[in-house]
DNA sequence: CTGAAAGCGCTAACAG
DNA sequence: CTGTTAGCGCTTTCAG
């Protein structure tokens, strides 16, 4: 492998000059710089990140820690983070818990601390106390996306407002019998977000003087399959079912839509359905939803970390990420 | 940060001994080893991967290069790779093209070659000649998952057989008017796989003496939205539409299912639908499909690379990954 | 079984 | 504007 010394020798300059020239640092004459660039190109020189990292203390890589990759929100945030990092010349080291607790200790107490990364993004993780403290002890900048962790900065939407907007959309259409499909529960995934949304649902219902029936509040784990099962249960009795369902995620809302097909319930004629997310499938499914943009959230969070690493002052207040009601074909006026 | 020297000094041994003890190398007395382990723990010592990488030439990290993260197949393979790597103590460095060509050159000609990784997995990428050759020149082991690249080892299913099995399932149910929703087309994503599946569809139809109508072969880009659009077009004319559709991916099949709902076509009474993948939503959607397991594929491919890095001889022949017909509710006998 | 010492390839003062 | 000189923190011969 050709090293910085090969380039330096072949040009009769010092390695320091090569290093400066290639990194765009000031204090190199234009002509030297271009000769160096040229020669580096010719020799196919690529700097070793290990050597650079050792010498400089910066690895030019950030880590992303998440509960699972195969899940719309997570992979979308990841995509946004990657986009931003790539543009800044940083690499992305991935730490997935893979939907289970296996190797979890290793990830926390070894991999992350291995000095391979200059900063860390954590996604929607429910942390144990010991994990939380080892996170707080990390000397490199850290940020959390999607579900707050006490003591760490957080990028995400206002979950309470998002849920309220969803429920009020239904109420605005005249619905009074409104069910709720709750998220949360999978191993290791943050449980605050589903709780916040549920609380907002209840409060909004109460604020409008509407009744909450326990049998209309069902668990769906944020997922299609569980959402379908929950919906089949909630909608089973034609004489006593809600006219609208608020789902804490779009995937669960797909489950409700599917349940409606299976049960022969017309949407939105007999049943209105609204979700949260604006999942990739929501547009073609005609699902009304509260849009959030995980792509942007990832990009934004990565940007904050990058700014800090580049010496810019840390923003002490992180703006809440936007959400937006997207009305499609799955919601309509209450049936008379 | 506490270094190996801190541990060595505090114990009155050499750094070499600490290094050997902690890495489980032979030639350390049991008692020394446990004292070292103990002290490392006490001091919270974590080795620097940069220093270790510089000294040893091994980074203990593999790279994954893929067109996009936010897509079921890719994120599922990624999850499998991550699982295997994590178990082996390797880190995973992610390179996503993010669905576009931006930064593509940089990824190929810099990031990947930056000596940050000991090996590389490439997913379903359509490569330019120059990219292909820079891949072949990589001194570290490389493997391709999901779509073959000439000259590089490949892990994946037999796409031709998978498509044939799907079509023959429909034929076995008595269908003769069988449409096809084709994949492929997105920027940078492999285009061999969709072509192989299409060819197999045509050949199977021909082998059974069945007619292929151009208007029944529609493009869907492997995706829900495009699949829906294609299906609406294919199924528009009630007097002249297929009784079954073979989709090159489950996501497109969801589009057909959705189109059927919109058009009031009964599935499977009037229309049978089969896909390829066994997407996470296929079970709750009741979609008949040809299952493949991207998780396993990623795990398997990572395993091959790891074996090689650990000095085991490279398998010269990589077994084809299995696929399997999963019959659910979306296919049934041809309407009479 | 253990230690000494020479780097790995780069960066970062410090001189000039 | 450019070169010299120390390391960064580990691994790895080579001795003992």
From TrEMBL, chains A, B:
SUPFAM superfamilies: lambda repressor-like DNA-binding domains, Periplasmic binding protein-like I. Residues 2-56 form the HTH lacI-type domain. Transmembrane segments: none annotated. PROSITE patterns: HTH_LACI_2 (PS50932). It comes from the Bacteria. InterPro entries: HTH_LacI, LacI/GalR-like_sensor, Lambda_DNA-bd_dom_sf, Peripla_BP_I. One of its GO terms (molecular function) is transcription cis-regulatory region binding. Signal peptide: none annotated. Keywords: DNA-binding, Transcription, Transcription regulation. It holds the Pfam family LacI. This is LacI family transcriptional regulator. The lineage of its organism: Bacteria, Bacillati, Actinomycetota, Actinomycetes, Micrococcales.
